[in-house]
């Protein structure tokens, strides 16, 4: 099997690895780079568990070939926290009980981080639309939506 050398900037660190042409980004992150925070749920791009930020935009890592993102910047859930601790989105999810089993949480955290970067003060409808691509089997979404609004407040307070 032919391997392709790729370099990704993952969570701010340049990482080089060799992957087969059909290696998914989710598998590259988890198995080749040891970043197991990115979860794989449906493997069809439906559930959103595998969502990471690619050059700041949310993408389904289970639908993205690793070779196609050579040279790009990937932020996983492990890279969301800053030097001072948890990000505002992470703090809000914890504060508002926006997680239960935690399986969907990494995808939600990446999705919401991008959502609030694009729209720092979303309406209730915009929050629901923004998280609609991520599935949760535990929470019923109420506390997740509350966490998005709380994260927006925390980000505004830090500005």
TrEMBL record:
- Pfam assignment, any one: Fer2_2
Give a yes or no for keyword Acyltransferase in this entry.
no
Q: Which UniProt keywords apply?
A: 2Fe-2S, Iron, Iron-sulfur, Metal-binding, Oxidoreductase
Annotated signal sequence range: none
The reply to whether Iron figures as a keyword in the UniProt entry is yes
InterPro entries, A to Z: 2Fe-2S-bd, 2Fe-2S-bd_dom_sf, 2Fe-2S_ferredoxin-like_sf, 2Fe-2S_ferredoxin-type, Beta-grasp_dom_sf, Diverse_Oxidoreductases
Q: Which PROSITE patterns match?
A: 2FE2S_FER_2
Task: Report which superkingdom the organism of origin falls in.
Answer: Bacteria
Ranges for domain 2Fe-2S ferredoxin-type: 4-80
Please give the PANTHER family that the UniProt record associates with this protein. Answer: OXIDOREDUCTASE WITH IRON-SULFUR SUBUNIT (PTHR44379:SF5)
Under what name is this protein listed? (2Fe-2S)-binding protein
Q: Identify the taxonomic lineage of the organism of origin.
A: Bacteria, Bacillati, Actinomycetota, Actinomycetes, Streptosporangiales
């Amino acid at each position: 099997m032919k391997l392709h050398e790729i370099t990704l900037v993952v969570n701010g660190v340049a990482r080089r690895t060799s992957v087969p042409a059909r290696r998914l980004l989710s598998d590259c992150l988890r198995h080749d780079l040891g970043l197991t925070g990115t979860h794989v749920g449906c493997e069809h791009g439906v559930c959103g568990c595998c969502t990471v930020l690619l050059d700041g935009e949310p993408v389904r890592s289970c639908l993205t070939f690793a070779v196609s993102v050579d040279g790009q910047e990937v932020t996983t859930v492990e890279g969301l926290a800053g030097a001072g601790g948890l990000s505002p989105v992470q703090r809000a999810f914890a504060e508002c009980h926006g997680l239960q089993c935690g399986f969907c949480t990494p995808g939600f955290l990446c999705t919401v981080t991008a959502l609030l970067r694009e729209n720092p003060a979303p309406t209730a409808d915009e929050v629901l639309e923004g998280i609609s691509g991520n599935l949760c089997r535990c929470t019923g979404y109420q506390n997740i939506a509350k966490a998005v609004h709380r994260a927006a407040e925390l980000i505004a307070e830090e500005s």
